[in-house]
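Inverse folding, one chain.
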């Protein structure tokens, strides 16, 4: 039975960042249910693939630059906001890096050297606490295996199995949403990001993202509502603004968390820790999570490197800045999600820009641009 110092469940931006930082010092096992070591296919990851400024800054902190084979067109510099509640539209300047999310995750994993043992196309089935270590059960298509480990890290996203099965239930739970995305042909030559506010649909938002030759239309529907019904209703209401989305080529869905304060962040107990969205680290205003994933993974790595015996206390202390960032983003919440405040901001044109748009030639001309608290990205 193989033994590891640290077993990381989930090889997304959080898990891959943690593994990369630990690889020279500990025996690490990196587990993911996706076949990240096989030829590229369609991985199960419900994400629009936009790298927002916060995530761009995180990449800069690590001295990383995205290779060209990860990028997809178009690269976008504005967001069109559709306010269904007030029947208004505005456009704001915002820069995103458009990536293929599957290639992005593969790239981050490729930065983990041969010191990291990888178990891909493998599911975490559970763990049993023993005296001083854990027995972890893993299941692949080939077989079931058991390994032992000193520390377990949950980097397995919003629906974290590590969190649900291994940690106590007494913690604040972030708001839960069902995120649905559909892919359509880009018949209208759209090349800017679109965000939608519509209280009838959700107290969060919906989005359209052009990517390569297609369009991704997604919605975040509060848990408890019929997600498919309200997603389809939003799609129908988009026709008023000239977006006729028909003949989808693909549809995906997943759970999405939304912390409404830093109290919703839960980092773990004992020798089990959570990073990224598993811990609740995701923007409450935009649902951007890649920056939090990479930064929380790095903070945990530095905590383990400083003291493997006392890593969780160090991790809790050193993530205070990330928690404050969550609370700071909530200061923007009224301007973005209060319909009356948003109406006046739109009416006054604060921070907006004028775009002359020709969808056939993809021509945009910007006029006045001023700072505003616009923040969108999945």
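Residues assigned per position:
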């Amino acid at each position: 039975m193989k033994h590891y110092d640290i077993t990381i469940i989930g090889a997304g931006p959080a898990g891959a960042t943690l593994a990369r930082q630990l690889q020279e010092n500990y025996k690490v096992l990196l587990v993911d249910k996706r076949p990240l070591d096989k030829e590229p296919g369609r991985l199960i990851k419900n994400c629009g693939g936009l790298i927002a400024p916060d995530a761009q800054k995180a990449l800069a902190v690590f001295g990383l630059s995205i290779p060209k084979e990860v990028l997809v067109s178009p690269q976008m510099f504005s967001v069109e906001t559709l306010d269904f509640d007030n029947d208004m539209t505005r456009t704001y300047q915002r820069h995103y890096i458009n990536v293929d999310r599957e290639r992005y995750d593969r790239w981050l994993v490729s930065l983990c050297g041969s010191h990291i043992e990888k178990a891909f196309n493998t599911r975490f089935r559970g763990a049993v606490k023993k005296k001083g270590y854990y027995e972890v059960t893993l299941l692949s298509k080939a077989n079931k295996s058991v390994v032992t480990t000193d520390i377990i890290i949950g980097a397995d996203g919003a629906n974290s199995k590590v969190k649900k099965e291994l940690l106590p239930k007494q913690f604040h739970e972030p708001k839960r949403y069902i995120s649905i995305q559909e892919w359509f042909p880009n018949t209208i030559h759209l090349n800017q990001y679109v965000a939608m506010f519509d209280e009838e649909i959700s107290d969060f938002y919906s989005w359209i993202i052009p990517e390569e030759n297609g369009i991704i239309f997604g919605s975040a529907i509060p848990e408890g509502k019929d997600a498919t019904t309200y997603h389809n209703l939003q799609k129908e209401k988009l026709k008023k603004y000239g977006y006729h989305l028909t003949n989808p080529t693909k549809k995906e869905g997943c759970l999405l968390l939304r912390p409404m304060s830093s109290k919703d962040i839960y980092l773990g107990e004992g020798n089990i820790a959570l990073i990224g969205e598993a811990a609740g680290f995701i923007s409450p205003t935009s649902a951007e999570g890649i920056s939090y994933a990479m930064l929380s993974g790095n903070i945990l790595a530095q905590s383990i490197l400083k003291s493997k015996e006392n890593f969780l206390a160090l991790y809790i202390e050193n993530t205070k800045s990330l928690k404050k960032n969550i609370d700071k983003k909530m200061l923007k919440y009224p301007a973005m999600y209060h319909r009356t405040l948003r109406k006046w901001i739109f009416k006054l044109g604060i921070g907006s820009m004028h775009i002359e748009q020709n969808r056939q030639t993809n021509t945009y001309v910007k006029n006045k641009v001023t700072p505003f608290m616009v923040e969108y990205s999945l």
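The domain at 1-43+101-172+265-330 is CATH 3.50.50.60 (FAD/NAD(P)-binding domain). Residues 180 and 228 are 8 Å apart (CA to CA).
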